[in-house]
Sequence to fold (282 residues):
Amino acid sequence: MTAQDTSLPMISAKQLRFVYPRGGVVALDDVSIDIPAGQSVGIVGQNGSGKTTFTKTLNGLLRPSGGTVHVDGLDTSKLTVQQLASTVGYVFQNPNHQLFATSVAAELAFGPTNLKLPKDEIEARVAEALEFFDLGEHAKSHPYRLSFPLRKLVGIASVFTMHPKIFVLDEPTTGQDHQTTRIINRLIHRLQDRGATVVTVAHDMPLLADVSERLIVMWSSKVVLDGTPREVFANREVMDLTHITPPQITQISLGMPSRAGRPAALSVEELAEDVRAGKESR
Ligand SMILES: Nc1ncnc2c1ncn2[C@@H]1O[C@H](COP(=O)(O)OP(=O)(O)OP(=O)(O)O)[C@@H](O)[C@H]1O
Ligand SMILES: [Mg+2]
Fold:
């Protein structure tokens, strides 16, 4: 049994380095990130900046070339992907890397069955997931017969039924339609209500503005900024460097002439507040 250091935050990466053996690409260079339990964090950055590589070190899919990663106080270098699976739920960018059961219901039951939960608990979790993800009518379908957006939801739902302490979503809304994007947004809020720690990698800034308390910006294998979405989107220099486009609402807010030092708006309601305040100050 590996020792658990309960004094550490839920996720703790220290001077993490990762070099892909093929090509010798340094994908993570001196990355140190602490994430407390229950926080919802977004990771943003250009293609190839190291986001997916970082998340794969959390569940043991990739082993650090240098530095350390602890999750829930456990040293990931001493555990297998299987041992970490109950702590770190990982949703792959591509659902085809994740699904293998012959029906949606079986896929959703797979994780809790592996955890050796009682039968009625497994059934309750599958029923809850079918409802939450609106997959009830597809329960008996083969996952590969579903559309890409629905297959992706099945992949997410099959992690959801395991109730992991840490939930990692890599590009959950890429290729999704409006309806499934809404479900994913609701999911992240639900996970937070449950006290889970959520790490979402995305290029979808409106999603992250809504669901993340904190954004970590990666550029060229390093962390270049770490702050609230408001702080990050208002940092013109880093937004330019990393080619990140803040949500339109935030851009309009930042461009308002009479903002009187107010923080950038992240929602329509906040922008309306900016407009009202601007009129009053005229
Ligand atoms: N299996 C691999 N073998 C070799 N190099 C890799 C491999 N996977 C990723 N890389 C390289 O490592 C670097 C970081 O890649 P990574 O996938 O972590 O980026 P990312 O930020 O997730 O990008 P994206 O937004 O495109 O998903 C890139 O230079 C990439 O080409
Ligand atoms: Mg990626």
User: Anything to note?
Assistant: The two ends are 67 Å apart (CA to CA). Residues 247-282 form one domain. Residues 51-52, 93, 170 surround magnesium ion (ligand 2) (CB under 6 Å).
